[in-house]
Design a protein that fits this description.
- With about 300 residues, this protein is α/β, with parallel strands linked by helices.
- Helices cover about 40% and strands about 15% of the residues.
- It has helices spanning about 40-45, 60-75, 90-100, 120-125, 125-135, 150-160, 180-195, 215-235, 255-265, 270-285, 290-295; strands at about 5-10, 50-55, 80-85, 105-110, 140, 165, 200, 240.
- Strands 1-2-3-4-5-6-7-8 form an eight-stranded parallel β-sheet.
- Helix 1 (about 40-45) links the parallel strand 1 (about 5-10) and strand 2 (about 50-55).
- Helix 8 packs across helix 9 (about 255-265).
- The radius of gyration is 18 Å and the shape is globular.
């Protein structure tokens, strides 16, 4: 079985109280209003040859980042944590330095898609915080939608040494590849991909498909393929990484189904290229240990 790294998954415990987006008054989110913890994901990882994951923040709070690091410290399969720090506040550098003392802290993710200012990323992050990220060897996860790609491009040009990964391919309009919105996404993501410090996650796309398409994995594969083909063209396999976006994925499909959809796309590559997308890109980008190295580190 091919070895995989899941470059994008979440854990949460809603009773903690800082998941502002996970609201009881949103019926569509009701299936997510429960605990999702390592014991829930572990059987899926074993079944599909996923040896490592990257655990990504889901709340705009330092407390949640500490919660995730505690989980990661207790579970070898979690290779890294992408946390949250408000890069616009004076204390950001101190927070980054403190968090970076944990070897599993790999980077930060402002929840750009939920901020009221679409151009926050181009105007608000403090230069001292970004210099600290560079000095500490941290990465930046960009949770964006297509409307954010233009200001993100400004930011990327200002900070060409900062490693950045686009989460969920910037959430293009899956299933609408003939639309004006899809054409604009193609153009804007290509402009971002032209910058060599940027990678992209092939993740989160099942839930971006129209609900009428989500029930059939074959239909989803057909809808996702134009996105995949464009990402492959502009990023290449060496800058694409696979992720599940579990448990958000469960709103539309399941882990096995997304593996199958992904195989329908990635399977057309050479063995070496497939290995890059399934694991190599994520390992390089996040600085994850190999399976053997991790065992050697364990007491």
């Amino acid at each position: 079985m091919i070895q995989r790294i899941d470059s994008h998954q979440h854990f949460w415990r809603p009773s903690r109280g800082d998941y502002t987006w996970l609201r009881a008054d949103e019926p569509a989110l009701a299936p997510l209003l429960r605990n999702f913890m390592p014991e829930d994901l572990a059987p899926l990882l074993r079944a599909h040859g996923v040896s490592r994951t990257v655990l990504v923040q889901a709340a705009e709070s330092g407390a949640e980042t500490e919660f995730l690091l505690d989980i990661a410290d207790a579970h070898e399969e979690i290779g890294g944590v992408v946390g949250w720090v408000d890069l616009s506040r004076p204390g950001a550098t101190d927070s980054l330095e403190r968090l970076a003392r944990n070897r599993k802290f790999k980077g930060v993710r402002p929840m750009l898609q939920d901020l009221p200012d679409d151009d926050w990323i181009a105007r608000r992050p403090r230069p001292d915080a970004l210099h600290a990220m560079l000095r500490l060897g941290l990465r930046f996860d960009a949770l964006v939608k297509p409307r954010h790609l233009s200001p993100l491009l400004q930011f990327l040009k200002q900070w060409p040494q900062l490693p950045v990964v686009i989460d969920h391919a910037a959430k293009p309009p899956v299933g609408a590849h003939g639309s004006d919105d899809f054409v604009r996404w193609r153009e804007d993501i290509a402009a971002v991909a032209a910058l060599p410090q940027v990678c992209c996650k092939f993740s989160g796309l099942w839930t971006e498909a129209p609900s009428a398409m989500q029930r059939d994995a074959d239909v989803v594969t057909h809808a996702v393929r134009p996105v995949w083909e464009h990402l492959l063209e502009v990023f290449g396999p060496a800058r694409l990484m696979w992720g599940s976006d579990w448990p958000v994925l469960t709103l539309a499909g399941d882990y096995a189904g997304w593996i199958a959809v992904s195989e329908g796309c990635i399977g057309g590559l050479s063995p070496q290229e497939q290995a890059s997308v399934w694991s190599g890109t994520a390992r390089r980008f996040y600085g994850l240990p190999s399976h053997q190295e991790s065992h050697q580190e364990s007491p």
